[in-house]
Amino acid sequence: MNWKRNLYAIWVAELLAIAGFNTSMPIIPFYLQEMGIRNPDLLKLWVGVIQSAAAIAMGLIAPVWGRLADSYGRRMMLLRAMFGGMFFIALMGFVTTPWELLVLRVMQGLLTGTIAAATVLVAATVPASEAGYGMGLLQTAVYVGATVGPMVGGMVSDLIGNRFTFFVTSAMLGLAGLTVLLFVEESFQPPARTKGLQSLKPDFSVVLKSPVLVYLILIGFSVQIANAVVNPIMPLFVQQINPNQTRVAAITGLILGIGAFSSALSAAGVGRPWPGESPAVAASQPPRHPPYSPAHLRRAQVEIPAQSLAAPQPAPASHKPRPPESVPRKLPG
What does the pLDDT look like over 248-261, one tens digit per residue? Predict the structure, then answer.
């Protein structure tokens, strides 16, 4: 198995997938206006419900998909996420009511989740010495896709129409799925399976036993909430402050894309050698972790210096200090 080909193929596929999702999602407020939702308060309510529906469904089903990935392989889960999203997002281009769009968004959330699936697949196929580089490269694909997607979606919405953006997203997810299907390999040995529904039950004991993981989950939860508060309403805010009401979708896409671009620049350096350290030295040594990282904290809990375990040794006789009374005193005068 060629891990480099796998990594680059996953990078291309994830860039296409994230760009596709971000092509159609920012124009949902305009799509609802096209369906006849004109009341500002009702429009904001529908935008919040529809945008959060997929995220809630994805969060509830994610542990189940993770359990299935351990049983059937990570590559299959990535294909499920991409082709499932391709199907349901294409159907969004045909809806005529907000309720239909809400149902399809829930189905999208239940079947997608490409970032988690791609992350697990990269972790499983990249050598441990290159794990930092692989994860950083994958994050770069996510942020580049989040940069390009809104810009493409805004232009498509203004030039062709809101409905067509969903078909563009579907096509990009289809290309991403084909990339994984044709170019990504996985050497997967399925473990002994538990019969019945017990095999689908997620195991949270690993998380609960590790305070570091609990803290990381809480931090990630807070960051996601902070990002999600602004993005769904951004198109309506741009529409409100734009007096001419022209190219609103394109301007919104540009604003959202610039924010993701700065994140892409920072993610590009993740996993590279530290300042002053040559690539050859970095490759020959185990991965380093900053003092606040989970790996460092985990080692700190179990590693005890060898010196502290050794019994105290008496000093050599030749180095024994003389008793105080044997030391001659220097008398004054």
Answer: 888 888 888 887 77
Asked whether residue 327 is assigned to any structural domain, the reply reads no
Examine residue 305 and state whether it is found in any structural domain, yes or no. no
The per-residue pLDDT for range 223-248, each reduced to its tens digit, is: 878 777 777 888 888 888 876 777 88
Cα angle: 149, vertex 151, 155; to 5 degrees: 115
Whole-angstrom Cα distance, residue 46 to residue 62? 24
Domain assignment present for 77: yes
What is the C-alpha to C-alpha distance for residues 188 and 128, in angstroms, rounded to an integer? 17
Q: Residue 316: inside a domain, yes or no?
A: no
Domain housing 223: 3-186+206-273
Beta-carbon count within 10 A of 134 CB: 23
Residue with tokens 């509830």: 60
Count how many domains the chain has: 1
Q: Output 252-256 pairs: Cβ under 8 A, ≥24 positions apart.
A: 252/26, 252/27, 252/150, 252/154, 253/26, 253/149, 253/150, 253/151, 253/152, 253/153, 253/154, 253/155, 254/150, 254/151, 254/154, 255/150, 256/22, 256/26, 256/146, 256/150, 256/231
**Which 8-state DSSP code applies to residue 195?**
S
What distances in angstroms separate CA 267 from CA 6, 257, 270, 289, one per listed residue? Answer: 20, 15, 5, 16
Confidence of residue 80 (pLDDT cuts 50, 70, 90): very high
At which residue do the structure tokens 């997938």 appear?
A: 17
The CATH number covering residue 218 comes to 1.20.1250.20
